[in-house]
Structure formats: structure tokens, C-alpha cells
Specification:
Strand content: 15-25%
Shape: globular
Helix content: 25-40%
Structural class: alpha/beta
CATH superfamily of the largest domain: Mur-like, catalytic domain
CATH architecture of the largest domain: 3-Layer(aba) Sandwich
Number of domains: 3
Strand order of the largest sheet: 8-7-9-6-12-13-14-15-16-17
Distance between the termini: 55 Å
CATH class of the largest domain: Alpha Beta
Length: 483
């Protein structure tokens, strides 16, 4: 087929373009720019890139036009596709139609942990020889890329589990301008044996969901759409997750950590953390389905990552028949995901981490994990509020406690300038409420100078942002190395 993607340089759209190319399609795409790393990656994959949104890019006529969810209805190419009655589809619709049908999806949904949980699940399935396809909104360190076609051959697990797995990081953003439903509605029900992981529910993406009720309703729609022969693996520590699981028509397996408040449910899978005390790896004891699986090991630290690992372990063993001993061994080899507690280097004896955390819960869990791994030296948190939710005052109060594990906190200016002043997160107020260990800085350069001046050997710097953060990562490494 001839496929053209409008908005191809986005993370998800670029990955989809590569899936089409891997399938053998003739693929082209348009966008306003093709900066590294996505631009060179598209060209290296043999995808023809076209700058701008000139309707002429749709000549000769493609078989299918995929329109990204960042594209508005008045986009010249979207208008031409409609006027010429070209076949067009959203990114999530294309993934369902061309890649999930005939496969068994493993969908990872929830407010937190989707990328890491998806990556662990794909890695475990790969280690088991099931040749999974996957579509992940990040870069797993143990897989060649964030997306792969995988094998469509029937591979049946020892327990008669469903064949041909395809792992999808299933997010709740709307699909396209003509389809304002969550993308995961397109993924669920693509087979009659979907496996779904629901990691958590806390109000997020306020630009799409202006109330918590609407946000929770989206996940209820996901749960209700899981086929009766499917499987839901759900975190019992979240009240909203427990409540929504009651609406599932399929089997439900709850998981939790020892000490969690799990309400009136009994987790099938439970983990017990072993204190790190500065150890290089996170150990935990795992109990599941009436058995003890002994002490497991995970290279990425933190209670939140143990939760992610338990969810993936349960999904691949119960949903796809992966041998538990094999999964246990493979889990110990999983080394993480780019931009998730990602150690960039340790120039001058100062460990510099990059992390995507921006929701208060993610910030708290990430900093707690780094504190457990690094017992000595100061933990310096550098936070750039950048997402539509982080830039708003919706979590103003929650952020005050999110940085408890840090010895010093530096706040960058908001990464968005289009938020009404009355709705903005107030970083000056936040710093004052935290106390003397917090400072709100006016520019990224001011933050850089502060870090270079005050960080000492043995300290840990955590750069927290879901964006490029003004290039601070490379600048900081270079300056510390010079020092």
C-alpha cells in the first residue's frame, strides 16, 4: 500500500510509519520539521519526508492517509483529504486496523507507569520466544526500538495461551479531531482475548479532561470494552481502579505491594520490597496465584517499578503462558527505558539522571527511588513543569510533598506560555511553601550555573521534565566534566 502520514515527526506517528515500512508498505510523511532523532530515523528507515503541509504532498494519491492527533481540522492536508474523499484514519485507528487485528493485544493503560510496564512486558515476551509486536511511547534499552511488527505466526503457550502478542502503550488522549474518544478505545476489542493492565488512575491531562469524573469515565469505558474471554490485571492500591474493575466482564487479577490499602479485594499477585540500602539493584519477594516465586531482582529501583514489574509478570504468565522461571530470569536482565531514571553520566563524581516525571506522584516515586539507591550525598531535584497538567495549579498542593526525598529543589519556569495566569502553577509560592531547600529560577541558564557551582562529588542530580528542558542535559554534563 501507499501510506502518507500527516504529522509524521511525532513520537507515536513516527513509530507507526516505521511499522508500515517494516510491513513492506511505501511510506511518506509530512510535518513542519524533521529534527533529530526522529527525522534521521525516518529517512534511515526509507520513509520519504516532506516539509510543510502542502496538499500537493498527497499526490500521487495514497491508498491511506493517517492523520495525527496534533493535526487540526483546518490543516490544508486534512482539508484536501476530506475534499478528495481519500481514505483517512487516525493513528490509533490505523494501529488497530493494520496491526492489531489477528493478533492478541496486551494493552497497558493508566496514569503512571505505562511506558516502563509496556517495555517490561515486551521484553519478557521477547525472552520467551514469542516474537511480540510492540508500540511503546519510549525507547526500551533492551529492544531495538520503541516499535516492532513482530511475528504473526501462531505461537501457543504451554497453557494454551493466545498467540501472536502485540504490546501497546495505550494512552487516554483523544484519537483525532473527528474522534474525540480516547485512543485506547480503538485498541481494546481488536481480538476476543485482550489482556489489559490498568496501572493507576489519578486525574491528569486536564487539557482533554476538565474534571476527574470525565477522566475516570474514560477508563471505565476501557474496562467495559474488554471481551469476556480477556484478562484485566489491575493495581489494587488505587481505589478508582478497584471500583472500575467491578465493571469488567472478564477475569480480573489484582496486584499490590505488601502494606498497601487494597480495600475489600484480595490481590492475586503481591510483592514485598527488600530495602535497597544503597544496593545497585532492587530486590523483592513475589507471591502469586497461591505460590511463592522467591526473591526477584530488578535493575531499576523504586516501589513504582516493582509494581510495574509485577503487572507485566502477571500479564505475560497468565495471559500468554510464559514460563514463570523464564520470566523471573528475564526480569533480572531488564535494564530500563530511556528518560526513566536514566543515568546520563557521572562527571566529576556527580550522578546526573534524566526522568520524564511530571505528575506529583511520579515525581515523588522517582525521587524516593533515587534516594534509596544513593544513600550518600545530596539529592538535587530540578523540575521543569511542562505538560498541560503540570503547568496548571491543579496539583499546586500535591507538589509541596512530592519533593520530600530531595535535599535541594530548583524549579524552572513553566514550559508553556499559553496557560491563563489565574490557572498557572505558581513556582515561587511552591518554593516558599517547601522552605529554604527550594528555589524558583527565572531561566534554565540560572539553574545550570547553580548546579555547576554547588554540586559536589557524590551528589545526585535528577532532571525532571517531559520535554527537552532547554538542552540542559548536555550542557550540564559538559560543564561538570570541564570542572
Amino acid at each position: 500500500m501507499k501510506i502518507h502520514l500527516v504529522g509524521v515527526a511525532g513520537t507515536g506517528m513516527g513509530a507507526l510509519a516505521m511499522l508500515f515500512r517494516e510491513r513492506g508498505d511505501e511510506v511518506s510523511g509530512s510535518d513542519v520539521s524533521f529534527d533529530p532523532p526522529i527525522g534521521p530515523a525516518l529517512e534511515a528507515a526509507g520513509i520519504r519526508t516532506m516539509k510543510g503541509y502542502d496538499p500537493a504532498h498527497l499526490e500521487p494519491r495514497p491508498d491511506v492517509v493517517v492523520i495525527g492527533n496534533a493535526i487540526r481540522r483546518d490543516n490544508p492536508m486534512a482539508l484536501r483529504a476530506s475534499e478528495e474523499q481519500l481514505a483517512f484514519v487516525s493513528m490509533s485507528g490505523a494501529l488497530r486496523e493494520y496491526f492489531l487485528k489477528g493478533r492478541t493485544p496486551l494493552l497497558v493503560a493508566g496514569t503512571h507507569g505505562k511506558t516502563t510496564t509496556s517495555s517490561i512486558a515486551a521484553y519478557l515476551l521477547h525472552a520467551a520466544g514469542l516474537e511480540p509486536g510492540y508500540f511503546i511511547g519510549g525507547l526500551p534499552k533492551d529492544l531495538p526500538s520503541g516499535a516492532a511488527l513482530g511475528s504473526t505466526k501462531r505461537k501457543i503457550g504451554a497453557s494454551g495461551a493466545p498467540p501472536s502478542p502485540f504490546v501497546v502503550e495505550a494512552d487516554e488522549y483523544d484519537a483525532a479531531y473527528w474522534n474525540k474518544q480516547p485512543k485506547f478505545f480503538d485498541y481494546v476489542g481488536a481480538s476476543d482475548r485482550d489482556v489489559v493492565i490498568l496501572t493507576s488512575i489519578e486525574h491528569d491531562h486536564i487539557d482533554i479532561y476538565d474534571s476527574e469524573e470525565k477522566y475516570v469515565a474514560a477508563f471505565r469505558g476501557l474496562v467495559e470494552r474488554i471481551p469476556p474471554q480477556g484478562l484485566l490485571v489491575a493495581d489494587a492500591s488505587y481505589p478508582a481502579v478497584r471500583e472500575l474493575a467491578k465493571h469488567a466482564k472478564c477475569e480480573v487479577r489484582f496486584y499490590a505491594l505488601e502494606g498497601d490499602d487494597v480495600g475489600d479485594v484480595t490481590p492475586t499477585w503481591q510483592g514485598a520490597l527488600v530495602p535497597m540500602n544503597g544496593a545497585a539493584t532492587q530486590k523483592f519477594d513475589l507471591f502469586g496465584a497461591g505460590s511463592s516465586f522467591g526473591r526477584l531482582e530488578l535493575a531499576v529501583p523504586g516501589a513504582h517499578n516493582v509494581r510495574n514489574a509485577i503487572a507485566a509478570f502477571a500479564a505475560v504468565t497468565e495471559g500468554f503462558g510464559v514460563d514463570t522461571l523464564l520470566a523471573r530470569r528475564a526480569l533480572a536482565q531488564f535494564s530500563g527505558v530511556r528518560r526513566r531514571q536514566d543515568l546520563l553520566g557521572a562527571p566529576a563524581g556527580i550522578s546526573v539522571y534524566d526522568d520524564f516525571a511530571h505528575h506529583p506522584t511520579a515525581v515523588r516515586e522517582t525521587l524516593s527511588a533515587l534516594r534509596a539507591k544513593h544513600k550518600d550525598g545530596k539529592l538535587i531535584a530540578v523540575f521543569e513543569p511542562r505538560s498541560a497538567t503540570a503547568c496548571r495549579s491543579i496539583h499546586q498542593t500535591e507538589y509541596v510533598r512530592a519533593f520530600d526525598a530531595a535535599d535541594k529543589i530548583l524549579f524552572a519556569p513553566l514550559g508553556r506560555t499559553n496557560i491563563p495566569e489565574a490557572e498557572r502553577l505558581d513556582t515561587d509560592r511552591l518554593a516558599k511553601e517547601i522552605g529554604d531547600r527550594a528555589l524558583a529560577k527565572a531561566t534554565v541558564d540560572e539553574i545550570l550555573e547553580d548546579l555547576v557551582r554547588d554540586a559536589k562529588p557524590g551528589d545526585v542530580i535528577a532532571l525532571l521534565s517531559n520535554g527537552a528542558f532547554g538542552g540542559i542535559h548536555g550542557k550540564l554534563l559538559a560543564r561538570l566534566a570541564q570542572r
